[in-house]
Design the sequence.
């Protein structure tokens, strides 16, 4: 059951950290594809510690569906944990991209 003050739809943003076997298994491409399906903007990137980070903005209901997809992951992944922090949307992204940051 949702709390009364929790936003159900409208603009939203989250930052998710996904751990498990999530690098070198196509997770970033999977996240990019699923973000497109759900109309999200933002990015996905690998982190030095072996996790994947996803920051996404869009409609709250569609973002919740994206989080569900991230919990499942692509067929080669073994998702052990997904930590999601909901934030105030900033409108800073024009699209969803894969970041290739150097650690």
Sequence:
């Amino acid at each position: 059951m949702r709390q009364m003050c929790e936003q159900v739809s409208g603009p939203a943003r989250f930052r998710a950290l996904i751990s498990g076997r999530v690098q070198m298994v196509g997770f970033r491409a999977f996240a990019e594809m699923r973000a497109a399906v759900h109309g999200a903007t933002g990015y996905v990137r690998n982190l030095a510690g072996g996790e994947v980070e996803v920051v996404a903005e869009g409609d709250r209901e569609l973002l919740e569906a994206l989080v569900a997809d991230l919990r499942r992951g692509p067929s080669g992944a073994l998702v052990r944990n997904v930590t999601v922090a909901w934030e105030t949307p900033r409108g800073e992204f024009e699209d969803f991209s894969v970041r290739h940051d150097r650690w």
